[in-house]
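Appendix B, example 12.
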Amino acid sequence: MADETKPTRKGSPPIKVYCLPDERRAIEEKAAAAGMSLSAYLLAVGQGYKITGVVDYEHVRELARINGDLGRLGGLLKLWLTDDPRTARFGDATILALLAKIEEKQDELGKVMMGVVRPRAEP
């Protein structure tokens, strides 16, 4: 039998695409945002695959910070709800301010999450 080997991409002829420098730069930026090489990005797009980007680590860091803030605020609220003696000096105004701060952090968390899920939705 003849020795048949499967063709590889490196052994196949490339497809050349002519584009303007700003078009190339835009494609390179999208490939980098997806965490892919330019070749892999163009191959995936050309075959109709949906490209999913790499999660922005800055967003992840911000989410972790907000989560920590919510945990601390929730702990204070829990102390107050259990009638802990350390919270006896907390008045209604303090508790209402705490609840407002928790709601503010939840809104902030939602905005960051939308930035991760739909990064190109905002101008």
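The helical segments are 21-33, 38-46, 57-81, 92-117. The chain has a mean pLDDT of 83.
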